[in-house]
Structure formats: structure tokens, C-alpha cells
Design a protein that fits this description.
The protein has 331 residues and is mainly alpha-helical. It has 15 helices and 2 strands.
Length: 331
């Protein structure tokens, strides 16, 4: 059956829309842009998702049609991180209990004074305020690609030669993840990582950002992550988070992690970091001792309460000029 027929009147327009959408240029997912060029485009995504209108998402999450903007900033010090958190309405207590979402505000680096003496509680708050949105953004990118691959797996007729942009993207994902055109295998690898795990691993590896490697070279996960992904130069903390999640998704050492993640999806359709952390003995030479410390760290800092957190859909509050440029402002 031609899947496009399922979309009703919108589906009948798919042939024409897909021909137009085939001209959409794929933006690099790791590149920050100021023009907000769309990755797939709203018409294309509407057809691929069974005729359900979908908001177009760009390569760094800058939303089209004026419905919202992401902000990036480079904090000069910890006080700047705290100030931005307050201005944007970041409230970790409310995020933990699920009563608010995470503002779409992203730091490009850790402040240099993370390596100096300061109140532990202050640095911990600032560290989470930086890393949590980055993890959610990286997961959001993965979820977007998963929707595309899921559609192709369920509905092969919906992805064809006429849909050049989507077909090219899927082919690129198979190449990146080494899955040889097997959609089921790709979906097992192409999946999100619970924020609790990523934040805890970063905090442990960098002593809550105090490590010189972290605030001078944007490396949040130590040399283990760098060696596994082949990434030596890290342009931003966002790039570091993306590379780490990719490592967990492709490295043979974490096959058990991916298997258990798939099982959690089947059983509960939600992921729980403390349980999945038990599969990461291969991450450290300390093996089981590291796993025990990681789970204890997650639960002791209530990071598991971030596993269902989501980025806000609305427009973030305007930030003071001193906090950095808004994406798209050309600053």
C-alpha cells in the first residue's frame, strides 16, 4: 500500500510536495547557523508523518515561522551562567517534578572560573544548567531522525527516489551508524540516552566542570570518549555531548546498554537512567566499581528526575546583551 494515501487530502498532494521538498538542502547537524535553514522542511515532514502537521525544526533547533528561537551564549564566568538561568526561567526543582520545561538556552563552553575555588552548590547548579539543555537538544535531534527512520521502516513507499532529501538523510544515518540499510538495526542504535546518565558521567569525569580539560578544551567526558569517537578537537560543549551520545550508540562495548534500552522501550516506552547505568562497566577500567559509583551518583543527585524532562516549545525570554547573542542576530 502507498503510505501517502493514508494522509487523506494532504497525502494526495504528497507527490507534488515531495518533488518540491527534494530540493531542500540538508544542513549539517553539528553546525550552528544564523539563518535557520530547515533540515527537512514542514511540507516534507507533514507527508512523512502521515499528514500530521509538524513544526519545522532547523539544524540547531531554531524554529521557523517565528514560533520560537534558541539562544546560545558563551559565559565569561559562573555568575553569567546563574544570571542567564534566572533570566530564562530555569527552575531545576520544577523541572524535576515535571511542572515546567527546560528553556531553550545553550552555552557554548564552560566558564573558566569553574576551575577556581567557589561554593560547591553554586558550581553544581551552574554545571547542570549548562549540560541538561545540551543533552536534551542532542536527544531532540536523535528523536527527529528516529521519526524519519520509523516512517521509512513502517512505510517504504513513503521514502523513495522522489524524496531525495529524506532518502539521503536515511542513507547517511545508515553509513554513520554502520547498519547497512537495516532500519531495525539503525533504530536500535539511533536512540536517545537518558539525561541522568550523561550529566552524571560528565560531572564525574570533570569534577563538576573543574577539570582543566573541560573548561579549556570543552571535553566533558575525558579521553575515553574522545578515543572512541575519534574526536580530538571539540569546538563546543554541545559537540562534546553529541560525540559522547554517539559513542554510547555505536561502540561495541555498549551493546548491552543498547539492548537494555530497547527492552525498556518495549516494556515501558520510557527510559530509566539508573537501571541502564548498570550496563556501562565497559566505559571505565574500574568496571563494576564505576557502575556502582555512577548509579549512586545519579540517585544521590536526583538526576533520574531529569529523565523525562523536555525542552520548552515556546519562545525563550529575551536575554540581556551581556549574556551573548541570540542565534540569528548575527552577534
Amino acid at each position: 500500500m502507498d503510505c501517502r494515501r493514508r494522509a487523506g487530502s494532504r497525502g494526495r498532494r504528497c507527490g507534488r510536495v515531495l518533488a518540491i521538498a527534494a530540493a531542500v538542502t540538508l544542513a549539517g547537524c553539528g553546525k550552528l547557523t544564523a539563518n535557520g535553514a530547515s533540515l527537512y522542511g514542514e511540507p516534507l515532514r507533514a507527508c512523512l508523518e502521515g499528514g500530521v502537521p509538524a513544526q519545522a525544526v532547523t539544524d540547531f533547533g531554531v524554529r521557523e515561522q517565528g514560533q520560537g528561537r534558541d539562544y546560545e551564549y558563551t559565559p565569561q564566568d559562573t555568575d553569567a551562567v546563574i544570571s542567564v538561568a534566572r533570566q530564562s526561567g530555569l527552575n531545576l526543582a520544577r523541572i524535576r517534578n515535571g511542572t515546567t520545561e527546560v528553556p531553550r538556552v545553550f552555552a557554548t563552553a564552560l566558564p573558566a572560573d569553574f576551575g577556581s575555588d567557589q561554593p560547591e552548590a553554586t558550581r553544581k547548579f551552574a554545571f547542570v544548567a549548562i549540560v541538561l539543555p545540551l543533552v536534551l537538544h542532542a536527544n531532540e535531534e536523535i528523536e527527529r531522525d528516529r521519526r524519519l527512520v520509523n516512517r521509512a521502516a513502517r512505510c517504504p513507499d513513503g521514502i523513495g527516489p522522489a524524496n531525495g532529501a529524506a532518502a539521503s538523510r536515511i542513507a547517511g544515518l545508515h553509513e554513520e551508524y554502520g547498519t547497512g540499510g537495516d532500519h531495525a538495526a539503525l533504530l536500535r542504535r539511533l536512540d536517545v540516552v537518558p539525561p541522568s546518565i550523561v550529566i552524571a558521567q560528565a560531572a564525574i569525569a570533570t569534577d563538576w566542570g573543574a577539570s582543566r580539560l573541560a573548561w579549556r578544551r570543552n571535553t566533558l567526558f575525558g579521553r575515553r570518549s574522545q578515543e572512541a569517537t575519534g574526536v580530538t578537537a571539540v569546538p563546543s560543549v554541545m559537540a562534546s555531548v553529541r560525540a559522547h551520545i554517539r559513542m554510547l550508540n555505536i561502540d561495541p562495548a555498549f551493546t548491552e546498554f543498547r539492548d537494555q534500552r530497547a527492552k525498556q522501550r518495549r516494556v515501558a516506552d520510557r527510559l530509566y537512567g539508573p537501571e541502564l547505568s548498570q550496563t556501562l562497566a565497559g566505559y571505565s577500567r574500574r568496571g563494576d566499581a564505576y557502575v556502582l559509583d555512577l548509579r549512586t551518583f545519579i540517585l544521590g543527585n536526583a538526576f533520574d528526575q531529569f529523565d523525562q524532562a523536555r525542552l520548552a516549545d515556546g519562545t525563550p525570554m529575551p536575554l540581556a546583551a551581556a549574556s551573548g547573542p541570540r542565534i540569528g542576530d548575527g552577534g
